[in-house]
Amino acid sequence: MLITPDDLYRALPRLSNSDLTRLKEEHLGYGAGDTNGRTGTDRAKVFGRAFHQHLLEPETIGTVMQQFMPDLLPAPVSQDAHQPEQVKELMNTVRNDAFCRRYLRQADCERVVLSTDPATGVACKARLDMVYTSPKRRNALIIDLKTTSARTPAQFLESCYTYDYDRQAAFYLDSLRHAESGEWADTRQFKFVFVGVMKQRPHRLFAIEPTSIPGFVEYGRKKYRFWLRKWREEQEGHRLVQAPAWQLSA
Hints:
Blueprint: H1 5-11, H2 17-27, H3 38-56, H4 61-68, H5 83-95, H6 98-106, E1 108-116, E2 123-133, E3 139-148, H7 153-162, H8 165-177, E4 189-198, E5 205-208, H9 216-242, H10 245-248
Parallel strand pairs: 3-4
Antiparallel strand pairs: 1-2, 2-3, 4-5
Helix pairs in contact: 2-9, 3-4, 3-5, 8-9
């Protein structure tokens, strides 16, 4: 069985922002049998992942597409046969944009960062679409690409709150600040930019800089630390239940 970068990343015994999303969904009652509109949401996530894979990790397209979206590979016509062309159009939109084109060349793509949250002590992991560090390491810029159904900048900003992108921005920024490698220890300025790629034609781009929106990152930080604490409490409770009886009565 071929081991992919996705497999290696998921195997790391640390918490990711996606893990926090799953933890939140469990607590909100989104169980395995819940079909209240979640199939379409999951489908959108898979499409977004396919787009990221084509753009940022083209060398792994074959294995990832086979695992997650085999209907996008060359095959008999399916109900989603239009989607390979849609992915191509979105990729061209990003590559033709001067800002995106610059950082696709200069940034580290799909960069994995390991950190430990100082407030909770929980070991974390993050995989960043693009991270650019200036030559003297004084500035760092994180760019995250999102496929979106929004048709205006205002709608895209609203979706950032709806889908907890504020939590993601804070989680990723703090991952750099507290990276165990110490790579960004002397960095003075951290910036974050979400680039929304409109899935419908004309495939406009919407750019939002969370670090310039008052309270955006701070509120996201409160969110992710709430769920880190919730996860830690559950782990400690599980260990207590599993402990020998003599330890529980001590």
